[in-house]
Specification:
Structural class: alpha+beta
CATH class: Alpha Beta
CATH architecture: Roll
CATH topology: Thiol Ester Dehydrase, Chain A
Strand order of the largest sheet: 1-2-7-8-9-5
Number of strands: 9
Number of domains: 1
Shape: globular
Number of helices: 2
CATH superfamily: Hotdog Thioesterase
Strand content: 35-45%
Largest sheet: 6 strands, antiparallel
Distance between the termini: 30 Å
């Protein structure tokens, strides 16, 4: 059992677009999540997911980080949006269904309305699959 809330409570997505399985590590400004590519994945074609889809996985790790920060403060999770990907590197062309990955996001800097994160996806052997630098705008704080 995870020490953290269910990922669906932290990331404002619903299945099938909720990609992450669970938050496995959190500290303020940093989150690591587990991702298993399952059959039925809407991004899969011919049993594989193009590695460019890791951009969405990294964005969801950022959402998990921000969601956990809100949860820890007793606040509601806010919806945000990636407005820029300053840099993305992909180190393999595709990911196979059934593979498991760790997706990590680390805040570089931020304000109440805008954040910059560095993110990465690694396979279980620790091999780097993709990296990115993302800029996000935070939505309005939900009414209490």
């Amino acid at each position: 059992m995870s020490a953290y809330p269910a990922i669906a409570e932290l990331v404002p997505h619903q299945v099938p677009m909720l990609a992450l399985d669970e938050l496995i590590h959190y500290e303020p400004g940093q989150a690591r999540a587990r991702l298993v590519l399952r059959p039925g994945n809407p991004m899969a074609r011919g049993g594989v997911v193009d590695s460019v889809a890791t951009l969405e996985h990294m964005a969801q790790a950022v959402a998990a980080c921000l969601g956990m920060e809100a949860y820890a403060e007793g606040e509601a999770v806010r919806v945000g949006m990636v407005i820029a990907c300053r840099k993305m590197e992909v180190f393999r062309p595709a990911l196979a269904l059934g593979e498991e990955f760790q997706v990590e996001a680390r805040r570089v800097r931020g304000t109440e309305s805008l954040s910059h994160f560095e993110a990465e996806v690694r396979d279980l052997a620790g091999v780097l699959v993709a990296t990115s630098t993302l800029t996000l705008v935070h939505g309005m704080q939900p009414p209490s």
